[in-house]
Amino acid sequence: MSNSIHIQNPINNKVLYEIDEITDIQASSIFETAKKTQSVIQNMSVKARIEEVFKIRDYVIQYSDFILDCIIAETGKARTDAFAAEVFEVTDVIDVYTKLAPKQLQDQKMNWPIFLMEKKSRQFREPLGTVLVITPWNFPFYQVIVPSLMSFLAGNATIVKPSEVTPLKPLWEHFFAHSGFMKDAIQVVIGGKETGAKLLAQKPDKVHFTGSVNTGRKLMEACAKQLIPIDLELGGKDPSIVFDDVDVDRTVNGIMWGAFTNAGQNCTGIERLYVQEGIYDQLVPYLVERTKRLRTSNINRDTSSPEDCDVGAITASFQVKVIEDHIEDAIAKGATLLCGGIKEKGSHHIPPTIFENCNHSMKIASEETFGPTLAIMKFKTEEEAIGLANDSVYGLSASVWTKDAARGERVARALKVGNVCINNHMLNEANPYLPFGGVKDSGIGRFKGEDGLLTFCNLKSVLIDKQGKLIEPQWYPYTNSKYKLLHAVMLSWFGKKRNWFKFITNVIPLDGIGNKEKFK
Ligand code: NAD
What we know:
- The protein folds into 3 domains: 5-234 and 451-461, Aldehyde Dehydrogenase, Chain A, domain 1; 238-431, Aldehyde Dehydrogenase, Chain A, domain 2, CATH 3.40.309; 469-516.
- It has 15 helices and 20 strands.
- The chain has helices at residues 24-43, 46-62, 64-75, 79-105, 142-153, 169-178, 193-200, 213-226, 248-260, 277-292, 317-332, 382-390, 405-414, 480-494, 500-516; strands spanning 5-8, 15-19, 108-110, 120-127, 130-134, 157-161, 186-188, 206-210, 230-233, 238-242, 270-276, 336-339, 353-356, 373-379, 394-395, 397-401, 419-422, 439-440, 443-444, 457-464.
- The model has no long low-confidence stretch (mean pLDDT 96).
């Protein structure tokens, strides 16, 4: 029996193509190719690497419709979701990092403490070697191309393993045939979990992983055995806190988008909504009324139209089961279904679903649902809202909605998350100048940001001395006089009150000691 993995269109369940796991021999050959190519990339100027990355941008612009068709065929996304979060975002990231790269990657002159004033200190920002990027299915184009191009700009050879749910095989074949991008600098390796494990066993110099908490844990264990550094960008259960001073119209628009864009298949989608009691009866019915008007994906939609639907399909069959399980669990535990719910068991077209009267014993309010669901809970005080929002194993992102700027900032500081929006949601991710990442079970490490390319660099520290003194004060031989002088220098410089006279009278003989003291 073949072990091939079927790639399906979630809108109509048609099988698009099949993929297979790679062999150990293939994995080894992929790494050999990477090693050879890396020595070429390393010797390219940053300017030449930037020129290569512009080929990606030009390809994205020229073939954006084709890219969108490929993404929609495998994910079932609404066309506008795919355009905004994958195609547009990629061009934005390229614009930012091609501007930042020359400054971020150049050698840095570093400061020095007073005792090292005759020496120079520098930092070289060098490539790590071969970077393995492993990606999930919810943003299959963006998640593959963004870390890969950043790793490439930093001078690495990059091997990227897309999710077996949405490998976008036809897209990558077309990309490498038509973009003119440097051969083998980024190798997209199609396959499943086994392929990921085989690539990891080849000992890349770094792993950049985006995916679930469970897989993240496994990969970290595997990396620990080989001492491979790994970034973990994992799941979330985003809370959003709405205070009773908000503009209801704007807030409802923002919450709807934050919860249901990409059909809720976002690590930073709103899944828990805490609404203050003073505005609850006004905001919640309006949110439900507006949500009922959103158009859900269906089998007959015209995917070529930007208005094909508002809430796309659920990409993976296993995710449909998780969402259904959370909906059933919420109903069984007494939550009130306000709209949506399961219309047809097993269907990838799940309408946006809102519950009230939820509590944290329900899966819908505590586990990552990764679907178009929203669990609403009422709160009285700011303190209570912060406590509820922080009552989670996750700590990826959150939002707070209020007209009171001081309260917005206070709550943002109190939330135990890696990213927070005030009066918006999820947009931290859209700003490449902001670092992105989670705390608690949501991950380890930061991605992107002003220094984002350094994630993929060996920050080599370099100290440059001259062929000066015969012996430095801290070198052998260790003598009583040297010890006393060192001690006096420390006290005079770092003591409660700085004593310049003592410092100079001790540091001068200490500095000269190297030329006087000889080995006995
Ligand atoms: P997943 O963990 O199941 O799979 C992710 C990738 O890991 C896939 O490519 C898979 O083939 C690979 N993989 C699985 N087992 C492996 C193994 N043993 N060795 C090597 N590779 C292995 O995650 P998913 O279902 O594809 O993605 C959904 C998850 O991703 C959600 O939890 C979501 O929150 C998270 N996510 C996080 C971010 C973020 O930036 N924090 C962004 C997007 C998605």
